[in-house]
Amino acid sequence: MTLTEARPVKAEPPVHKPSTRKRLVPYWLLVPGILWLLVFFALPLVYQASTSLQTGSLEAGFKVTWHFRTYLDAFGEYWPQFVRSLLYAGTATILCLLLGYPLAYLIAFKAGRWRNLVLVLVIAPFFTSFLIRTLAWKTILADGGPVVDVLNTLHILDLTDFLGWTEGSRLLATPLAVVCGLTYNFLPFMILPLYTSLERIDGKLHEAAGDLYASPATTFRKVTFPLSMPGVVSGTLLTFIPAAGDYVNAELLGSTDTKMVGSVIQSQFLRVLDYPTAAALSFILMAIVLVMVTVYMRKSGTEDLV
Amino acid sequence: MTQLSKRPVTWLRRNLVVIAGLLTLAYMILPNVVVMVFSFNKPNGRFNYAWQQFSLDAWKDPCGVADLCGSLALSLQLGFWAMLGATVLGTMVAFALVRYRFRARGAINSLIFLPMAMPEVVMAASLLTLFLNMGAPLGFWTVLIAHIMFCLSFVVTAVKARVMSMDPRLEEAARDLYAGPLQTFLRVTLPIAAPGIAAGALLAFSLSFDDFIITNFNAGSTVTFPMFVWGSAQRGTPVQINVIGTAMFVIAVLVVLGGQLLASRRKNSAAPE
Amino acid sequence: MTQKTEGGDVRLAGISKTYGAFTAVHPLDLTVPQGSFFALLGASGCGKTTTLRMIAGLEDPSTGTVSLGSTDVTHLPPYKRPVNTVFQSYALFPHLDISENVAFGLRRRGIKSVQKQVDEMLELVQLGQFAHRKPHQLSGGQQQRVAVARALINHPQVLLLDEPLGALDLKLRRQMQLELKRIQTEVGITFVHVTHDQEEAMTMADQVAVMNGGRVEQLGAPADLYENPRTTFVANFLGTSNLIQAEIAATASDVTTVTCGDVKLKLPAGRCRAQTSPGDRILIGVRPEKVSIAHADDDATVPDSRNRLTGRIVASSFIGVSTQFIVDSPSCADFEVYVQNVERDARLTPGTEVVLHWNPEHTFGLDADQAIDAGVQSVEDAS
């Protein structure tokens, strides 16, 4: 404070500073939650990074030896599982979008007084454990079941056999069954964000587009779909990320030929007890997913996941 | 004549979205129907995958399988504590993020975002590495820690959305009307943020209750309900699993519908006379 | 919570507010006499709301003190000040019904039996039958009255109103202006009213402070501000002024003569806010309704004692009680004239040459060193 500046008040009034106690409030609110994430989310990643660079055996113990070859060996041995994971997860994500969009649209614009009931029906299956529901697919897709019978009669399974999606005119233990299970399990994660962003769209925009010579199809292409982009982005991410790491569907509905990378990590960690390889695999998966997510979010110009 | 033959086609085109949407809905509900139907099955052998004959045996004795109800009780307990922990911590973080400007905001936002952008198996494996390195005994506590960790981000997101849409003038009005900081929080902030907090809590409970991958890595010999189901998929699936699954589904639907009925009744009674 | 003190003027001494490098309110001294209806008037961003919030305690002043009567309340939090606020868009608690909204302040002060007071207050604002509705079930005007009731029930020493009528449509706004004025006279509490609507400020307030760029430009009774603006901002922001750039030709004890091109105009020396030595530049102004308009053919009928300009009508619009003309004159490009529709001269159509004339007494003079169009409302800042 200098007195050289001319001020309209004669005496320099006292300057008030906000109290330190007030300034610390946000930190007190943040500390417990952030500490929890740092210790149980970030720190484990550090531990895992170090584990992936260790060599040794269970009996002799593991030591950090900066053994980067583990990464090459792990990827060299298990790259088919990585490719399969991304392929299955990608296919399931696209299927979720194709199947989920009409339902989200239906709830947002067409359901009227049934809206809440349909929403409940979308969410309620959550309360039956997803494992039980995935097991139900075993019954639905079973050999000799009605689904397989119908598809066989229509010779559709011959076609999918030819494409390599199924094998031996059956559904269970095939890639198709795994993708079908993944799609089923992650559909709600696609529908809910889609519905949220569709619901925000003012119905008058449809009328305005119609008034300005847009056909219903053009209205959808030029108005509705672009405005629902935030939902599309967060829906696809919330589907793709967990699907890429999932091994439940591959284990329950697939065969050894449909194993995804999650299965490998799980068995290396919990059965083979080869921790460095498991950690390296897990890191590669994380890197692939993070890179894909970042690129995708940049391209679609969004900042928030949900 | 042409008018008439064209009609079903136009009808189909008009209602294409509705038909596609309902087909998806059917796809989503079908497994629940199967689970329900097969809860009345009397299977031949250990696995409950093929229909044999109608029976009420499992419904009469839902806990008739060893460890089933124990694992269910454990999962409910875990769900409750994970919900409580994640909701309290997450709500605090959400308020700090919306209401205050401070350094490291960007880093903190990323830390909240990353667990949601991470395949579960990666978090599961790295957390196990930590516990093994620290020599922590695997069991209820390690699972609870893991559940609070991955539920936290979802609670923050749900509460943040609600708090952001809240008019800050409401709290100013409370302070102006003689409510101190605590009173303002209890009488105005909390009731208005409640729907967001409740949504976050519900999400946390269902995520925790239904989690398998992270739990499977960090549970040691403790068996939660999803782990029991997983194990039974290898050893033999008792009908009781379907009974529990159906009961949870029906209870959830009834609770939601009951809540809506109550809300609409309250709205009607408050309507203009 | 503070016990009521009698003689409670609101006194602001050197208060200012800065956010980083931005100064929202420059050090400001202001006294609001007890029982008065005081308006802070200005465009958005002029610091009027910040000033109000500092009185309420919702904003900590960077410098200076706020006193109520003889008590310094600068460091009291809002919930300990005997001051209540009617917020912009009302801030009614959505989860409480009307009666609980109104009772909120009483309950927080630990008063148990509030029902009677709440009922009386709702009667005062004529909302008795709505006690058990939720805020969103009420119309804008009703919500506004709830907000007033919720504040007044606490018998504050000062009631602060932050653009309380901004969200209402024109007709309702007029009605509520009268209503608020009635309530203020009835309860006799000091009202400090923030608004960007000059008509609202002038109809309701005893005293108006016109704010601009974080400073008070002028303070006074509405009629005084209107008749004797001291700056171009006040001249343009309160109503409309025709401002003409001129040069002082001669000064006498009571009359100053100025020239603008080859036109000579006179104004009372007492209404000159600027340097008054011959040769100085000056801005002179006159309100549109003080000016008469005559067809050029009737030039001879205009008395010599009046100030006169010539020009051509550019546009005219008929507004019922009056007709507004825009006249292009060599001295002033868009000279506005409002003429009461008593006897309309049918010859006054666009393109017509006219003579403008007015009583020199109605002319005021301003310092030439300021923007001539300060405070002019343009399309962009009309809210």
UniProtKB/TrEMBL annotation, chain A:
Pfam families: BPD_transp_1 (PF00528). The chain crosses the membrane at residues 27-47, 86-109, 116-136, 172-195, 278-297. The keyword Membrane applies. The keyword Iron does not apply. InterPro entries: MetI-like, MetI-like_sf. Keywords: Cell membrane, Membrane, Transmembrane, Transmembrane helix, Transport. Its main location: membrane. It is found in: Cell membrane. Belongs to the binding-protein-dependent transport system permease family. CysTW subfamily. This is Spermidine/putrescine transport system permease protein. It comes from Streptomyces candidus.
Automatic annotation (TrEMBL), chain B:
Residues 72-262 form the ABC transmembrane type-1 domain. Pfam families: BPD_transp_1. One of its GO terms (cellular component) is plasma membrane. InterPro entries: Bact_Polyamine_Transport (IPR051789), MetI-like (IPR000515), MetI-like_sf (IPR035906). It is found in: Cell membrane. Keywords: Cell membrane, Membrane, Transmembrane, Transmembrane helix, Transport. The chain crosses the membrane at residues 16-40, 78-98, 110-132, 138-159, 185-207, 213-231, 243-263. This is Spermidine/putrescine transport system permease protein. It comes from Streptomyces candidus. The lineage of its organism: Bacteria, Bacillati, Actinomycetota, Actinomycetes, Kitasatosporales.
UniProtKB/TrEMBL annotation, chain C:
Its EC number is 7.6.2.11. InterPro entries: AAA+_ATPase, ABC_SmlMolc_Importer, ABC_transporter-like_ATP-bd, ABC_transporter-like_CS, Mo/tungstate-bd_C_term_dom, NA-bd_OB-fold, P-loop_NTPase, PotA-like. Transmembrane segments: none annotated. It catalyses: ATP + H2O + polyamine-[polyamine-binding protein]Side 1 = ADP + phosphate + polyamineSide 2 + [polyamine-binding protein]Side 1. It is an enzyme of class 7 (translocase). The keyword ATP-binding applies. Keywords: ATP-binding, Cell membrane, Membrane, Nucleotide-binding, Translocase, Transport. SUPFAM superfamilies: MOP-like (SSF50331), P-loop containing nucleoside triphosphate hydrolases (SSF52540). Residues 10-238 form the ABC transporter domain. The keyword DNA damage does not apply. GO terms for cellular component: ATP-binding cassette (ABC) transporter complex. GO terms for molecular function: ABC-type putrescine transporter activity; ATP binding; ATP hydrolysis activity. NCBIfam families: potA. Part of the ABC transporter complex PotABCD involved in spermidine/putrescine import. Responsible for energy coupling to the transport system. Belongs to the ABC transporter superfamily. Spermidine/putrescine importer (TC 3.A.1.11.1) family. The complex is composed of two ATP-binding proteins (PotA), two transmembrane proteins (PotB and PotC) and a solute-binding protein (PotD). This is Spermidine/putrescine import ATP-binding protein PotA.
